[in-house]
UniProtKB/TrEMBL annotation:
Keywords: Monooxygenase, Oxidoreductase. This is Quinol monooxygenase YgiN. GO terms for molecular function: monooxygenase activity. Residues 9-74 form the ABM domain. Signal peptide: none annotated. Coiled coil: none annotated. InterPro entries: ABM_dom, Dimeric_a/b-barrel. Pfam families: ABM. The lineage of its organism: Bacteria, Bacillati, Actinomycetota, Actinomycetes, Propionibacteriales. Gene3D superfamilies: 3.30.70.100.
Length: 97
């Protein structure tokens, strides 16, 4: 069953000028992973440094494998550094409500 993962990111006020290019590079790697259906970014209208990455995964297992890869030296990204540690992940499953 497909799941949706929301990655809530508050970029540091002192993040480098090329922060958007860096986030784009991180997302390119995400979009290349097995099991990803889509990954989009939405920006807070009142706070342009507040981003939410909306990821749709084929399964929890695919998302878990991706998160495990991101925890390795090969998969590590600089999102945590750009956000000053202000990153939160919440995962959702479809419901018939």
């Amino acid at each position: 069953m497909a799941i949706t993962s929301l990655l809530d990111i508050h970029l540091r006020p002192d993040a480098p000028e090329d922060v958007e290019a860096r986030v784009t590079a991180v997302l390119a790697a995400t979009r290349a992973r097995p099991g990803i259906i889509s990954a989009e970014v939405v920006r807070d209208l009142e706070d342009p440094r507040h981003l939410v990455v909306v990821e749709l995964w084929e399964s929890v297992e695919a998302d878990d494998a991706y998160r495990a890869w991101r925890a390795t030296p090969e998969g590590a990204s600089e999102l945590g550094e750009l956000a000053g540690g202000r990153v939160a992940l919440v995962r959702y499953e479809p419901t018939s409500i």
